Amino acid sequence: MWQHRAVAEPGVESFNLTNRSDPAWVKMAAVSVEDRKRVFRFAVYEADQASGELRKSGVRIRLPDQACQVLDALLERPGEIVTREELRQRLWPADTFVDFDHSLNTVINKLREALGDSAGNPRFIETLARRGYRFLAPVQIVERSPATQGVAAYQAVASEAVAVDSSQRDLSQPTLPITRRTFLTAAEDLPSVRSPYVRILFLLIQLMYLSFYIVALARLPQLESVIEQTFGPSAWIIAVAIIAALVGLAIRLYLISGVVFGIEDLGAKFRKLFVPIFLLDQVWALAPLLLAPQIGIGLALAATATLIYVPFSQRTLLLMGKRSPG
C-alpha cells in the first residue's frame, strides 16, 4: 500500500509549482490529504497511491512494498532531493536494526529495474552521492475523488511540466486516463541526446541509402544480371528496383535537406512518412541477399537483418533528439 507523508503543514500536501499564487495552487493546498486518493503519472507509467500498484502502459508491474514507498516519496517531490535519512525514517522504524546503506541500495536497484532505469544514465531516479535521490521526469498528479467510490473519474490538478489553471476546466466532467498501447518506442521511454549527435547520425543514414540508390541506377545492367542469375528472367523485379530507387532518391533528398537546413519538427514529418519509408527500406534490406554468392550467405543475412532494423533506428534517433533540451 502506498503510504503518504505530509511535507508541508499537517494535513496539507506540498506541490512543486513555480507560481504559488496560481489558483490551481490555492485549490490544491486547501484540500486535506485524507480526502485524496492520488495517482501519479510519469512517462508511460502510472503509480496508484491507494492500491500501491505500478503500471506501464496499463500493464501492472510487480514491485516490492519498500520500493513502492520509495517511489511514492520521490513522486511527491519531483525535482527535489529526498535525503537518505528521510527514506530511512520512512522505511524502517527507529528501533529497527538493519544494514541501512546496503538495504536502501537494494531497494533503489529494484525500483530502477522495474522502471527500466539506470544509475549511469538516469531517466527517472538520479543519485546524489551521500545525499539522497531526485526524481527527474515530469510528474502529473491525478486525484480520484472519494465520492466516485472507485469509478474512473479523475481530475488532473497539477503537472511538474505544465501548471494547470483549474479555473479554465470543467471540473464536473471526469477525465479518463489514456493508455498508450503500441509496440513502437515512445519519446518518454528514451534518454535525451544532444541535437548535433542526432543530426549527424541521421544524416549519415540518409547518405547511406542515397548511395544505394545511385549505385543501383548507375550499375543497372550488372544489377539486372545478378537478379537473372538469382531468380531467372524477372523483368518485374528490375522494375520494382528502379521504381524503389527513384522514390527513395526523392525521399532521401528531402530528409537530407531537412537536416541540413533545419526544417522545423522534422521528427513529426518523418513519423508521418514512416510507413512508406519502412516499406521502401524493407525492399532494399533484401539487396544483400543478391550478393550472397560473392560475400557468403551468413554475411548477407547479417547485412539484411541490420538493414531491416535501420528504419526503426531512424525513428528512435529523432525521438531522442526531440527530448533534447538543445
**CATH level 4 superfamily of the largest domain:** Winged helix-like DNA-binding domain superfamily/Winged helix DNA-binding domain
The first-level CATH class name of the largest domain: Mainly Alpha
Q: Give the helix proportion (percent range).
A: 40-55%
The CATH topology annotation of the largest domain reads as Arc Repressor Mutant, subunit A
The N- to C-terminal Cα distance equals 40 Å
Q: Tell me the Rg in angstroms.
A: 26 Å
Structural class: alpha+beta
**Given the structure, what is the number of helices?**
12
Order of helices and strands: HEEEEHEHHEEEEHHHHHHHH
Q: Whole-number average pLDDT?
A: 75
Q: Which second-level CATH architecture of the largest domain applies? A: Orthogonal Bundle
Side by side, the strands of the main sheet go 4-3-2-1-8-9
Count of strand segments: 9
Describe this structure in words.
- With 326 residues, the chain is of the alpha+beta class.
- It folds into two domains: 23-181, Orthogonal Bundle (Arc Repressor Mutant, subunit A); 195-323.
- Helix content is 49%, strand content 12%.
- It contains twelve helices and nine strands.
- The protein has helices spanning 23-29, 65-76, 84-91, 100-115, 195-218, 220-231, 235-260, 266-272, 274-285, 287-290, 292-295, 297-323, and strands at residues 37-42, 45-48, 53-56, 59-61, 81-83, 125-128, 132-135, 140-144, 154-159.
- It has a six-stranded antiparallel β-sheet, with helices on one face. A three-stranded antiparallel β-sheet has the order 5-7-6.
- Helix 5 (195-218) packs antiparallel against helix 12 (297-323), helix 8 packs across helix 12 (297-323) and helix 9 packs antiparallel against helix 12.
- The longest helix is centred in the C-terminal third of the chain and has 27 residues, at 297-323.
- It is elongated.
- Mean pLDDT is 75; it is low at 1-36 and 147-181.
